[in-house]
Amino acid sequence: MTILDDARRVADEGPVCDACLGRCFADRSFGLTNDERGRALRIAAALDDNEPYDPDEAECWVCEGESDRFDEWAETVAEAVDGWQFDTYQVGTRTPPLIAENEALLRESAGLPEDAGESFKSEFNREVGKRVGRLTGTEVDFERPDVLALLNVEAAPRAGEEGAISDHAVDVQVNSAFVYGRYKKLERDIPQTEWPCRECGGSGKQLADSGGEEPCDHCGGSGYLYEESVEELTTPPVLDAMDGGEALFHGAGREDVDARMLGTGRPFVIEVKRPRERGVDADALQREINEFADGKVEVTDLAPASHGMVERVKELDASKTYRMDVAFDADVTAEALRDAVAELRGTTVEQDTPQRVDHRRASMTRTRTVYDAEADLEDARHAELEVHGEGGLYVKELVSGDEGRTTPSLAGLLGVGAQVTALDVLAVEGEDEPFAVPEYLKGEE
To answer: What was the pLDDT predicted at 103?
Structure first.
């Protein structure tokens, strides 16, 4: 049985358009569109039968004329995405159930395998997609495109009916845009992200004795425990520059609210949902963020980023370097401090979940390594301590011992009470290598 014999049987199920005919044999010949393939098979069969070529002009019962509307659909998509800046796209199609049933019936009636050739959906995606790319000057991306156009063929007027394809038949999904950077938090008592009040659940209201509502006593009616956050001091300029619908802040861990983030800064990604603009000037945007933050927060290394950068940042296994001011309950000598710090250097610490975070984190025992530690005694009751530790090390408890929940600890080794009175994070770096934006994201595309 030859391909021409199979093609004759498919054509006999007519009227079948050239595209639907050719689609049945897409896996048996290459270098042609399905429309060209179907026409070539008809011509070859006619020559083989010594008969004149007779194109089938009637409306195809399989696709109901939809295979002739690639250009019309592509123009509708181009109109629907007008006003959105994007570099990559993808087209998807919701195939009408009747067309899918017709395809299966055609192959069954012609004695072909049910998966022979190519599906209507696959061809529609490709042919409309190619035309969308030409109309918009963008490239297809099958992994994570900037925009995804879903074509609802059933929602459009049928081929031959009056009325153009409405953009209501095209569902445009705009994927997020991302920028990466590092932030420094230059003032204390600023959380990384918005911190809703626990007492009122962020509503800013509480039940009054009269039965009505009044401003929450705990947050003063703001709904938040802190007036500002790193998120609120960085995301508005990005959201404005990209003309998006919402901005989300993703950090590589977070420092305590009362700690400053200095030194090399902490990696972060700002995600902007449904952005109309993507090609922002990273240097100009960095300046705008820093001006907006007014000296409370500073960002560096700002650059465009991919979706994958969010997971890289959130899952970053980072070591951290801290600088702490420490106060002692009793006098400490320089020699005793030196010996205690030497004991901590390179040791593995066991830490039960600290009492200060036990209400919001699972109770468990963690082991973390202190890579390095140095201390300078300022007077008998005060010292400056610098610690480089494994990610997840609770350094405040490394100093205080947290009533025996952390061992060893500086307080335990000294035999005196010790508390951190001021904490700065100096560096947040990946365990294997410094965290950085891939080179291909730094330059212009």
So the answer is: 95
Model confidence over 348-367: pLDDT tens digits?
A: 999 999 998 877 677 889 99
Catalytic residue among 18, 256, 402, 424: 256
User: What pTM was estimated for this model as a whole?
Assistant: 0.83
- Among the candidates 287, 316, 345, a domain finishes at 316
In degrees rounded to 5, what are phi and psi of residue 113?
-60, 150
pLDDT tens per residue, range 311-346: 889 888 889 999 999 999 999 999 999 999 999 999
Within a domain: 207: no
Residue ranges making up the domain that contains 298: 177-194+229-316
Q: What is the DSSP letter of 158?
A: P
- Res. 439: pLDDT tops 50: no
pLDDT tens digits, residue range 56-67?
Answer: 778 899 999 999
Q: How many helices (H) and strands (E) does the chain have?
A: 12, 16
> Can you tell me whether residue 268 is helix, strand or coil?
strand
* Cα distance between residue 153 and residue 76, in whole Å: 12
The span from the CA of 24 to the CA of 6, in Å, is: 9
- In single-letter form, the type of residue at position 418 comes to A
Residues 189 and 263 occupy one common structural domain: yes
pLDDT in tens, 89-100: 999 999 999 999
Q: How distant is the alpha carbon of residue 156 from its chain centre?
A: 33
- DSSP of 187-244: SSS--SS--B-TTTTTSSEEE-TTSSEEE-TTTTTSSBSSS--HHHHHHHHHHHHHT-
CATH number, domain containing residue 403:
3.30.70.3190
* Residue 445 DSSP one-character state: -
Query: From CA 192, how far away is CA 187, in angstroms rounded?
Result: 12
Neighbours of 257 (CB within 10 A): 15
Structure-block tokens of residue 184: 């420094």
Task: Render pLDDT for 23-58 as a digit per residue (tens, 0 to 9).
Answer: 999 998 888 999 999 999 999 999 988 888 777 778
Please report how the helices 120-136 and 70-80 are oriented relative to each other, as an axis angle in degrees rounded to 10: 50
Give alpha helix (H) positions in 112-215: 120-136
Q: Judge whether 256 counts as a catalytic residue.
A: yes
Distance of CA 384 to the CA centre of its chain: 40
The alpha helices in 318-442, defined as continuous H runs, are: 334-344, 395-400, 410-414
C-alpha to C-alpha distance for 244 and 147, rounded to whole angstroms: 14
Distances (CA, A) of 105 to 12, 63, 111: 13, 12, 10
